[in-house]
């Protein structure tokens, strides 16, 4: 007994003595040989019997003292290695087969070579979108068929080429299911289909071209196409497609539309629910047969399948969908994308470019890696990796070298890798280049063999007191025996004195941290997380090792007995010092420049101001160069300054005078100072050469001196100021005297200073306008108030139209019974806002209803008055203090005779301040008829000027010059007197310069054209710039449903005669399409308000018919054909030479087939000739020189010819002088246009102006392009020195230049100028997505607008309760998100079972764009709380708050753990019938619930999996038969039970609580029942600079909380402080003696009788001013504030494939100091893998990390923490799961189909049968479909009703079909 105690004591002393020399082998305390060799690859074991030192040690340490050393080495053997033959035309890899065995934790490398030839076999399969919009693309492809084969042949001599086509699923709503459209969706098209393999891969080019020529286009309805179905079939149907095994596989995917992806098939009426099985489903004709049975594949599925089959995609798409496929292409290891032109004419160039890109890329990835290993591939040659993936840039024709690094993992959590199943320890790793079928096979295995000495143990050895086995030199004791010789029986204390630490003053055995048995201490586990006790007396804690920068042992070593055992290359108490002196080497290769010593990796310099390597600190020397050399420059250059005279000799700088100084970048410093002697400024430069003491000065000879002195001006200025003050004093005295005289002498009243009271009057007395220049039908005429501005004055005014005609002449033309529109303007008692600008906004609509209702109530007493109409809102500028109030403009139809009564009633109601319930502000109104107006304006206190809005009564029948008279009538309120009472307004009506008309009175356009271009024609009388406005009006076509209404203006520039008005047409709605709605859709387009000398022509309005098919098109074309009633206009002939004349004209109005031009010699009309043409110009040839010709033009169509134009004449040139026009006075243009200026007109137009160059330009050409894309430039030609650039992109930078030209050629181009178009309103945001947490809580997210048209500044989210008909029934609540990157909110406390309409819109600098809306009833959606990542930083919106509520940030986990579900009374109805619910999950589990209800009894039966459960009457729970339990994630057993309370079903609230409890189980399954949860919140309050109060909220707990524990520690390191609070009612703590400006981590947890719960963490800093001499002492009385460092931004997850995840986050808004990097931890919640830690360097605004080697269907918790100069900031957490792509497993996100049948017998011999089918999908989009069929049979009739309700992208569509049959 004493002997082994001495050995143990000796061993401990040796260990203590060698503590500083310990290593990871000894620190592991391995007890057996096998455990030892598994510690690390360099650990060995000593099996000697008499060995007294630690047996597990480094082999180098055991060599001197141990004879029998056990070790294991890894091995690697190359089995097959055939050298690469560069003459072979195929990709090769060498070696081909290798075997490798590794120890756990060991890493080995393998070098291999890959050769990609210059030319290899190629299989190219062309997959094309065959929707109708690709018609021109198909035509071009047919033309380019042979050239396409030629392009492939240039890629490789050994090639095959194939062709396939796709459209979409043949189901609603993707395809029009009407029989006619199913047969032929468009003219000359094939029936719709999903995918068809038209031409398998072949090398027969002629056969390829012949089959391609026969193909016809097809069509579908919605914009996204089903290309993903086609891609998957092309990948998996290798035999049908014809892929060759030894070739490079290229897939060209051509489309102009976006794509459908997984879950889209579950959001449509067809009810496609089955997941894609990833198998080949092509029939004998090559058609895909499962399009209506299976869903679309997901993006990760396509990436995996294309990668596994070695297929490289090339996306050839148009600009409409380029952004979608650009993002998609980045997910593929090797791919390419090119932008097609609209007609695919550039497809050949695109393929050439794509193939060159692909040839330079190669992906090499290690596949089938065992789960106990990790493999990475790197390059050893010039091949460069593409970002962080396994894709490399290679040069074809060269042998590239790579390296495979294979590392065997050590542990998976607490499980050693050698304890994993054998299948996880070994496997064949496949290394395969993406362009090859050859691969490298690596047979890898984990070396987990048992030590040989353990295989032959000495059982019951005497060396072990017969109480154990002697194995590998030591005893392994039996149960209850301990000790080196197994001679200590457990439970026997032995000598307690042996367990007391002699170095401690305490007499407690084992330091109160362990139990003494046989005189040996056995340490207890610590209550602190990760703390272990150790040592002979349990006196050591592994948490008390030295720290550096907050890390234990600087994260460069391990803690052993409270000392750091440093890793190789590090030393020091905290492992803070590198052994290497590399950081002390200076730029000369020396050590610390020979001026210091290197300690702990840093130079200790003799000079404290030296740089880090003890060199001269050039920066400090340069700080004062200018100031140091200033005085020397003064004395040496000018003999001035402090050193002038003898002191100047002390300057040893090299001085030089120069004319001009060097540039700043060429010298060390540039200086300038003012010379005090002459007040001049001098300049010089300083050059300082490092390590040289000489300074070189260059001084500019010339000083900058100010002009002559101005001191003599000071006395003059003082004199003038005194004189001005004296004059002001005299004026004041004069005015005081005058006013005294005015009071006594009436004769003084005429003096200016004796003016009377307030005066009001118009500012001007006459206005004159040209009617063509008017932009409004009213004029704001200013009225001013002078003298006194005190008090309020109301002025009544009126205006009379056509005063020049006289009252008698005017009254003869009117009838008192005529109904006219009275324009009313009132000032509402309401502040105007931007919402009222939008007539479609809810606020505008509410105010309009209020105004119309109350105005109608008031004016209904007027005889003959109708209801008001066209109510609008605006503000009145220059209205004094009322400028921000809302002006209501409306129209009241009433008889002319009611005008006096309307005037009187309006003024009375305005004076009262109310129109029924509508509040108005007195003092303002306007009532205007068609011949006069009357109103009031108000001057408030202190207001000097207000505007009177005068109607101008502009009418077509007005005289050429008409006059209006405006009169200030009286002042009904106030003391003001009217001075300037009248204003004359004269409007001059000019003769029309041009006539503008539509070409015809009606048009027909096709809906598939998407835009209707309506032509306008101008007949020019006098050329110039004219304008006209236009707008649309609904007929049978409705705005927003059939077309998009427009209201704008058209500008005709000089010389322009034709314009087109575009009107956007919308696709036919699903309801119209399904029901076959054949109503003719028409809308009206009308012209109004012509300006700048224009008038409206023959057709000022036109009817536009929207055609939907060929029948309607032909019908509408025949209906819209009219005879031609007008001749062609603007016929202009121009001689070309002596025998030719060119004639041009404007198109005739109507449907024109062609034109006939008749011409003859002027004196011989009988010899006339006629020329026919379809153009608007013709060239007359074979004419006589010097001859006058007359000509006229007429148009014709199938109904006949129209009238001829006016006869025009022209003379041909003389043959001798025909070249004169080209030469006479004409010179070449040698200079470019100058002074080019660009100014934006609007967001889509720019105006360019310039000065013409010398010469006689005929015209100009403006070339413009998007900045950086000059290849896509466009050209505008103009004859004037200005041009408009139309159809531009908003918020886009354009560049342009101009050149002039004439008959002698073009001149030089001007300088390129640039301009940015203004912002335009953004489009609506992308579709809304809902994550339903409960029936009252949802997370709403949305995508960015497809066209931002500027920089998005914020989003607005609104939601409103609506009825089932989508009508609002409550107020709208809104919240603004001012961080546009955070496109997510969480809304809670919604009303259960209540539909809401949600709307999101975006704002940029131009304003708010249109909203994206969705209607959703949360209670009908499945709840999946685990399907979302926990993102704490999203706004939480409380739906029960008032309108003034503010956003606040809150942890989402708090919301999920503290739900507020609403309570509903959900009782069963007793009916005589049968109810059955059938739910099918994708994994194969089927649930059936059958309810047989009667009047007296109930019985429920349910089957789940293999469990059959029955609920009989009176029972409270389900009775389950034998069956397997259901298993959830992480091995948790979930028991499916449904408790019945009083015979009723469980309520929705109980379902919500159950779902949240399951979430709690999944997140905290390891917590025992009754253990408290995390305290819900931490609240900090600063009591002083070093004092803090910490408060928290009680945690949820099934048991009573007994106590709390608060721990805190400085993030900079230091001792952890712990405070226990035994009183559970105390939930706050005051902590003193904190350090100012230090960040502390606080943790709070609760205790119950079941143990401690998890911690709630928080980081806080008390910021205050401190004494500079003592940074830890705050200045008394100084202010202090709390600062909470924020966590990194929300975590964004993107699954690249089943093993690779992209993690992104934003920089913390308020970091804890300067950010040095980030620490990312990845923890598998299932415990199947080890927790990984990643160090990410950088301080970018948005960070990204690629996380590899993940497992499917395993939830991972990610934590991101910023590493700062003060330590670590708080963590951001997120949970994500990469779903399995295998159809057989049950996903958390299961798609469900619910079917219900009800049969009831009703009185009257009637019976009903109702069947319901409902489909839903999770997790991200709550789209779904419900189909209800009801059949009612009676004695004489049968009625069947089918109701389809579809939820797609947040939009509810309901369709009802009812059929009636006679019995």
Radius of gyration (Å): 46 Å
Cα distance spanning the termini: 107 Å
Largest sheet: 10 strands, mixed
Total beta strand runs? 121
Shape: globular
The percentage helix is: 10-25%
- Poorly predicted runs of 5 or more residues: 1-21, 267-271, 742-752, 808-813, 1110-1120, 1217-1224, 1423-1434, 1440-1566, 1781-1808, 1810-1825, 1847-1856, 1858-1863
| Structural class computed from helices and strand pairing | mainly beta
Q: Describe it for me?
A:
The protein is mostly beta strands and 1863 residues long. The longest helix is centred in the middle third of the chain and has 32 residues. 13% of the residues lie in helices and 38% in strands. Helix 6 packs parallel to helix 13 and helix 9 runs parallel beside helix 11.
What attributes does this structure have?
ten-stranded mixed beta sheet, 25 helices, disordered C terminus, mainly beta, ten-stranded antiparallel beta sheet, about 1850 residues
In short:
With 1863 residues, the protein is mainly β.
Write the layout of secondary structure elements.
Elements: H1 2-17, H2 24-27, H3 33-37, E1 43-46, E2 56-58, H4 59-62, E3 69-70, E4 75-80, E5 92-94, E6 97-102, E7 107-115, E8 122-129, H5 135-143, H6 145-155, E9 159-166, H7 179-183, E10 195-202, H8 205-213, H9 227-236, H10 238-241, E11 248-255, H11 299-308, E12 311-317, H12 322-329, E13 336-339, H13 347-359, E14 361-367, E15 373-379, E16 384-385, E17 391-393, E18 399-408, E19 411-412, E20 415-416, H14 422-425, E21 426-433, E22 440-446, E23 468-471, E24 474-477, E25 481-482, E26 488-489, E27 514-517, E28 520-523, E29 533-534, E30 540-541, E31 547-548, E32 551-552, E33 557-560, E34 563-566, E35 570-571, E36 577-578, E37 596-599, E38 602-605, H15 618-623, H16 625-638, E39 654-658, E40 669-674, E41 681-688, E42 695-700, H17 713-744, E43 759-762, E44 766-770, E45 778-786, E46 793-801, H18 807-811, E47 819-831, H19 842-859, E48 869-874, E49 885-895, H20 899-912, E50 914-915, E51 918-928, E52 932-939, E53 945-951, E54 961-973, E55 977-978, E56 982-988, E57 994-998, E58 1002-1006, E59 1011-1020, E60 1026-1034, ...
Parallel strand pairs: 6-22, 8-9, 8-11, 11-12, 12-13, 39-42, 43-55, 44-56, 57-64, 58-65, 86-90
Antiparallel strand pairs: 1-2, 1-3, 4-6, 5-7, 7-18, 9-10, 14-17, 14-21, 15-18, 16-17, 19-20, 21-22, 23-24, 25-26, 27-28, 29-30, 31-32, 33-34, 35-36, 37-38, 40-41, 41-42, 43-45, 45-53, 46-52, 46-54, 47-49, 47-51, 48-49, 50-51, 51-52, 54-56, 57-59, 59-62, 60-61, 60-63, 63-65, 66-67, 67-70, 68-69, ...
Helix pairs in contact: 6-13, 9-11
């Amino acid at each position: 007994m004493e002997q082994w105690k001495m050995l143990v004591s000796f061993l401990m002393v040796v260990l203590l003595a060698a503590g500083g020399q310990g290593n990871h082998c000894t620190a592991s305390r391995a007890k057996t040989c096998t455990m030892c060799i598994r510690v690390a690859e360099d650990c060995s074991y000593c099996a000697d019997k008499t060995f007294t030192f630690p047996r597990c040690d480094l082999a180098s340490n055991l060599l001197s003292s141990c004879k029998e050393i056990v070790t294991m080495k890894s091995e690697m053997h190359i089995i097959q290695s055939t050298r690469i033959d560069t003459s072979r035309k195929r990709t090769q890899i060498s070696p081909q087969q290798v075997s490798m065995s590794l120890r756990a934790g060991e890493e080995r490398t393998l070098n291999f070579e890959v050769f990609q030839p210059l030319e290899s076999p190629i299989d190219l399969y062309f997959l094309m979108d065959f929707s109708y919009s690709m018609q021109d693309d198909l035509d071009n492809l047919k033309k380019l068929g042979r050239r396409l084969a030629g392009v492939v042949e240039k890629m490789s001599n050994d090639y095959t080429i194939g062709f396939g086509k796709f459209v979409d699923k043949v189901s609603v709503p993707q395809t029009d299911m009407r029989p006619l459209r199913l047969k032929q969706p468009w003219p000359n098209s094939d029936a719709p289909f999903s995918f068809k393999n038209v031409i398998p891969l072949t090398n027969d080019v002629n056969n390829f071209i012949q089959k391609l020529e026969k193909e016809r286009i097809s069509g579908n309805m919605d914009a996204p196409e089903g290309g993903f179905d086609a891609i998957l079939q092309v990948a998996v149907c290798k035999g049908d497609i014809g892929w060759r095994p030894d070739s490079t596989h290229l897939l060209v995917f051509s489309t102009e539309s976006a794509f459908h992806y997984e879950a889209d098939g579950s959001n449509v009426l067809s009810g496609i629910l089955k997941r894609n099985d990833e198998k080949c489903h092509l029939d004998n004709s090559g058609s895909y047969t499962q399009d209506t049975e299976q869903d679309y594949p997901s993006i990760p599925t396509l990436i995996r399948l294309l990668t596994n089959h070695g297929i490289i995609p090339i996306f050839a798409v148009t600009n409409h969908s380029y952004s979608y496929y650009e993002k998609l292409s980045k997910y593929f290891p090797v791919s390419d994308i090119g932008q097609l032109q609209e007609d695919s004419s550039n497809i050949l160039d695109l393929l050439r470019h794509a193939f060159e890109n692909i040839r330079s890329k190669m992906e090499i990835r290690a596949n089938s890696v065992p789960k106990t290993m990790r493999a990475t591939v790197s390059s050893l040659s010039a091949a460069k990796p593409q970002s962080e993936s396994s894709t490399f840039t290679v040069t074809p024709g060269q042998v590239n070298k790579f390296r495979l690094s294979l590392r065997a993992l050590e542990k998976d959590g607490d499980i050693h890798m050698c304890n994993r199943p054998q299948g996880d320890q070994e496997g064949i790793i496949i290394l395969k280049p993406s362009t090859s079928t050859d691969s490298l096979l690596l047979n890898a295995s984990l070396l987990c063999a048992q030590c040989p000495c353990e295989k032959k143990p000495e059982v019951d050895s005497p060396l072990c007191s017969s109480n154990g086995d002697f194995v590998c030199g030591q005893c392994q004791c039996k149960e209850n025996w301990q000790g080196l010789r197994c001679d200590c029986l457990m439970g026997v204390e032995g000598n307690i004195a042996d367990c007391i630490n002699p170095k401690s003053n305490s007499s407690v055995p084992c330091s109160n941290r362990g139990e003494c048995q046989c005189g040996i201490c056995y340490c207890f586990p610590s209550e602190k997380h990760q703390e272990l006790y150790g040592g002979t007396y349990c006196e050591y804690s592994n948490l008390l090792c030295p720290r550096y920068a907050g890390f234990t042992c600087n994260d460069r070593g391990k803690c052993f007995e409270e000392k750091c055992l440093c890793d190789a290359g590090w030393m020091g108490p905290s492992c803070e010092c590198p052994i290497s002196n590399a950081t002390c080497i200076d730029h000369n290769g020396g050590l610390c420049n020979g001026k210091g010593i290197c300690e702990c990796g840093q130079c200790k310099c003799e000079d404290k101001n030296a740089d880090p390597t003890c060199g001269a600190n050039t920066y400090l020397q340069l700080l004062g160069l200018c100031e140091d050399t200033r005085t020397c420059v003064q004395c040496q250059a000018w003999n001035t300054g402090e050193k002038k005279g003898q002191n100047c000799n002390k300057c040893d700088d090299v001085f030089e005078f120069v004319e001009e100084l060097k540039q700043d970048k060429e010298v060390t410093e540039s200086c300038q100072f003012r010379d005090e002697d002459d007040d001049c400024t001098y300049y010089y430069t300083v050059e300082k050469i490092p390590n040289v003491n000489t300074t070189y000065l260059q001084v500019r000879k010339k000083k900058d001196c100010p002009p002559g002195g101005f001191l003599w001006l000071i006395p003059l200025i003082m004199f003038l100021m005194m004189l001005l003050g004296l004059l002001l004093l005299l004026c004041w005295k004069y005015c005081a005297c005058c006013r005294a005289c005015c009071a006594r002498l009436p004769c003084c009243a005429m003096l200016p200073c004796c003016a009377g009271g307030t005066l009001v009057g118009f500012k001007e007395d006459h206005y004159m306008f040209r009617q063509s220049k008017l932009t409004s039908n009213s004029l704001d005429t200013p009225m001013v108030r002078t003298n006194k501005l005190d008090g309020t004055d109301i002025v009544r005014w009126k205006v009379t139209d056509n005063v020049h005609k006289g009252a008698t002449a005017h009254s003869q033309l009117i009838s008192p019974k005529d109904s006219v529109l009275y324009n009313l303007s009132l000032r509402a008692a309401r502040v105007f806002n931007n919402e009222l600008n939008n007539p479609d906004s809810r606020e505008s609509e509410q105010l309009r209803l209020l105004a119309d209702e109350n105005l109608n109530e008031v004016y209904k007493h007027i005889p003959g008055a109708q209801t008001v109409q066209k109510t609008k809102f605006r503000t009145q500028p220059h209205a004094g203090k009322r400028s921000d109030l809302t002006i209501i403009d409306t129209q009241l139809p009433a008889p002319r005779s009611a005008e006096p009564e309307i005037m009187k009633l309006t003024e009375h109601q305005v004076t009262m301040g109310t129109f029924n319930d509508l509040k108005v502000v007195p003092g303002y109104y306007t009532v205007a008829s068609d011949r006069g107006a009357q109103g009031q304006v108000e001057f408030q206190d202190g207001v000097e000027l207000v505007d009177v809005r005068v109607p101008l009564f502009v009418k077509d029948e007005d005289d050429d010059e008409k006059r209006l008279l405006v009169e200030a009538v009286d002042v009904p309120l106030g003391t003001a007197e009217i001075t300037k009472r009248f204003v004359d307004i004269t409007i001059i009506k000019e003769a029309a310069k041009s006539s503008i008309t539509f070409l015809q009175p009606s048009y027909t356009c096709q809906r598939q054209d998407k835009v209707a271009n309506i032509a306008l024609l101008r007949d020019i009388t006098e050329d110039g710039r004219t304008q006209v406005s236009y707008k649309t009006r609904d007929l049978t076509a409705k705005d927003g449903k059939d077309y998009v209404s427009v209201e704008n203006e058209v500008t005709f520039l000089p010389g322009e005669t034709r314009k087109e008005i575009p009107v956007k047409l919308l696709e036919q709605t699903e309801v119209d399409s399904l029901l076959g709605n054949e109503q003719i859709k028409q809308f009206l387009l009308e012209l109004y308000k012509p300006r700048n000398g224009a008038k409206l022509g023959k057709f000022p309005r036109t009817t536009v018919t929207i055609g939907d098919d060929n029948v309607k098109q032909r019908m509408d074309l025949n209906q819209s054909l009219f005879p031609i009633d007008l001749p062609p206009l603007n016929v202009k002939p121009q001689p070309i030479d002596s025998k030719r004349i060119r004639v041009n004209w404007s198109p005739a109005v109507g449907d024109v087939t062609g034109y006939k031009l008749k011409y003859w010699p002027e004196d011989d009309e009988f010899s006339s000739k006629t020329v026919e043409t379809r153009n608007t110009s013709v060239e007359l040839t074979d004419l006589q020189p010097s001859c006058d010709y007359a000509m006229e033009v007429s148009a014709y169509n199938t109904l006949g010819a129209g009238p001829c134009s006016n006869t025009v004449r022209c003379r041909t040139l003389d043959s001798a002088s025909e070249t004169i026009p080209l030469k006479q006075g004409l010179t070449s243009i040698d200079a470019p246009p100058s002074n080019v200026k660009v100014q934006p007109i609007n967001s889509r137009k720019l105006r360019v102006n310039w000065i013409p160059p010398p010469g006689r330009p005929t015209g100009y050409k403006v070339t413009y392009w998007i900045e950086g894309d000059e290849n896509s430039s466009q050209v505008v030609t103009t004859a004037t020195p200005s041009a408009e650039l139309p159809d531009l992109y908003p918020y886009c930078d354009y560049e342009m230049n101009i050149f002039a030209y004439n008959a002698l050629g073009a001149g030089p181009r001007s300088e390129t100028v640039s301009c940015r178009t203004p912002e335009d309103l953004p489009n609506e945001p992308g579709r809304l997505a809902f994550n339903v947490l409960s029936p009252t809580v949802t997370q709403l997210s949305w995508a960015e607008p497809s066209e931002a048209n500027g920089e998005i500044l914020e989003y607005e989210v609104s939601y409103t309760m609506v009825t089932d008909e989508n009508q609002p029934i409550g107020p709208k609540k809104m919240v603004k998100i001012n961080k546009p990157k955070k496109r997510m909110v969480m809304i809670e406390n919604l009303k259960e079972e209540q539909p809401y309409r949600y709307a999101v819109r975006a704002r940029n600098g131009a304003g708010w764009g249109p909203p994206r809306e969705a209607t959703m009833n949360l209670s009908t959606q499945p709840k999946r709380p685990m399907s979302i990542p926990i993102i704490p930083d999203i706004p939480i919106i409380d739906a029960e708050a008032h309108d003034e509520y503010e956003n606040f940030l809150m942890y989402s986990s708090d919301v999920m753990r503290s739900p507020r579900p609403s309570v509903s009374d959900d009782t069963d109805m007793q009916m005589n019938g049968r109810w059955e619910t059938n739910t099918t999950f994708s994994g194969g589990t089927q649930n059936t619930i059958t309810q047989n209800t009667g009047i007296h009894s109930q019985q429920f039966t349910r089957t789940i999996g293999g469990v059959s459960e029955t609920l009989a009457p009176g029972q409270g729970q389900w009775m389950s038969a034998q069956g397997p339990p259901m298993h959830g994630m992480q091995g948790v057993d979930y028991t499916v039970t449904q408790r019945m309370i009083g015979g009723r079903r469980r309520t929705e609230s109980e379902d919500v609580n159950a779902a949240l409890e399951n979430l709690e189980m999944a997140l905290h399954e390891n917590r025992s029942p009754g253990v408290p949860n995390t305290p819900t919140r931490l609240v900090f309050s600063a009591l002083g600079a070093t004092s803090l109060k910490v408060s928290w909220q009680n945690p949820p707990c099934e048991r009573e909380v007994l106590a709390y524990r608060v721990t805190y520690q400085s993030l900079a390191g230091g001792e952890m402080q712990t405070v226990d609070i035994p009183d559970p009612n105390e939930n706050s703590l005051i902590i003193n003696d904190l350090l100012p400006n230090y960040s502390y981590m606080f943790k709070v947890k609760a205790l119950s009788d079941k143990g401690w719960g998890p911690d709630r963490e928080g980081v806080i800093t008390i910021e205050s001013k401190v004494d500079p001499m003592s940074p830890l002492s705050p200045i008394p009385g100084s202010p202090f504030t709390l600062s909470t460092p924020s966590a990194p931004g929300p975590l964004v997850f993107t699954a690249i494939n089943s093993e690779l995840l992209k993690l992104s986050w934003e920089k913390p808004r308020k970091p804890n100091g300067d950010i040095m990097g980030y620490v990312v931890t990845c923890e598998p919640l299932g415990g199947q893998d080890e927790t990984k830690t990643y160090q990410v360097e950088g301080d970018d605004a948005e960070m990204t990390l690629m996380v590899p080697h993940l497992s499917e269907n395993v939830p991972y918790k990610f934590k991101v923490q910023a590493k700062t100069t003060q330590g670590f900031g708080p963590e951001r957490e997120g949970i994500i799961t990469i779903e399995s792509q295998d159809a057989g497993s049950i996903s958390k996100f299961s798609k469900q189909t619910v079917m219900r049948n009800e049969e009831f017998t009703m009185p009257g011999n009637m019976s009903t049968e109702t069947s319901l089918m409902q489909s839903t999908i999770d997790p991200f989009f709550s789209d779904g479909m419900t189909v209800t069929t009801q059949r009612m049979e009676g004695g004489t009739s049968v009625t069947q009703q089918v109701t389809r309700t579809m939820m797609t992208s947040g939009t509810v569509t309901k369709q009802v079909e009812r059929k009636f049959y006679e019995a």
